[in-house]
Amino acid sequence: MSQQFNDYPEVTFHPDHSGGTGKIWKIFWVLSILTIIELGLGYFLYAKQAELGYAAVLSTKVAIAILTLAKAYYIVSVFMHLGDEIRNFIMTIVVPLVLFVWFIIAFLADGSSWKNLRNTRGGSRVDQTEQVQPESKHK
Amino acid sequence: MGATTIPAGTKWWSGGKSPFNVNYGKVMMWYFLMSDAFTFGAFLISYGTIRFSVNHWADPNHVFNAFPFAGHANLPLAFVSLMTFILIFSSVTMVLAVHEGHKMNRKGVEKYMILTILGGIAFLSCQAWEWTHLITGDHAVLVNGHIEHWGTTVTKNPWGPEVMFNGQEVATPGPIAFGGYFFGITGFHGFHVFSGVVINVVMYIKTKLGHFDQRGHYEMIEKAGLYWHFVDLVWVFVFLCFYLV
Q1: CA B115, CA B103: separation in Å to the nearest integer?
Q2: Tens of pLDDT along A64-91?
Q3: Residue B1 at interface with chain A, using a CB cutoff of 8 Å
Q4: CATH superfamily of the domain spanning B24-244
């Protein structure tokens, strides 16, 4: 065991730092390859956006988002060494972030709802709004 | 690197030790970063909400297609990929500095801190170029029946839907929120990069002065490293939300 953390008596068990840099470089390559795949999908969207249907575009974008989450996992777990901490500590960081699941779904749905309301003049009553016009003959 | 071996049946909450097996400073850095993640998350989700609420949004492949010294060549994603790889690589040099710190190797820490600082400066320079290009670049826009030339700013968005005008396709003004969100979020991230560079410079000087050798550990490098990796982590999501999708 190395000498470090001697100033921190509250830290009971010390991580094993005897390993080499192999894992760091491995993760570097993993991140690079994931980024290159993301870019490949990005160029695919750029080249084919006109021909692709809504579902194909959306699923490509979701695939890119999943690759991004994989990159985030590797950065946090290996580069930030969170994977080497004890489980209790990992959970105090990760569990609050679950709020993002609700946050993303709720707010994107809200934005999408606003778009629909605008496009349909405040709801699903486009037909009725148009039918109101002839009533002006009362004048 | 490497896992911590914990004996089974350890009583974490019986007192006399950190229940998380981490010292105070590192715990607080993690909780600060978690709150910062919520700040960035709120910004990005707000951007997503507005983007989902309009019929037309600026096409990133069209807006971000320039490269320094490449003139008007159409190179979508190229410059931002360079920025992404710069940041990933500076993250690697940072984790190597932390690794050398574990080994109590001062020269190694100094070398990798310098490389990390250079990576941060390179990223900031790229961002400065990108912003300048966007703000000063002129684009023809059809405003009230005549053509104006606009840059991309927080009040002007020349990337709206294209219409026919005098037999030519010309853009109309797009949603004004585009510039505000782009400059606001990449600016907030850029400011994090800047403060990360400042922190890293301070850590480099303290390493050089031998402060960590006197203290007997290089844990300050680890805490600075956490912040620096977080900056890279946020960029991964900014890259996704503004440039890729």
Answers
A1: 18
A2: 999 999 999 999 999 999 988 888 899 9
A3: yes
A4: Cytochrome c oxidase, subunit III, four-helix bundle (1.20.120.80)
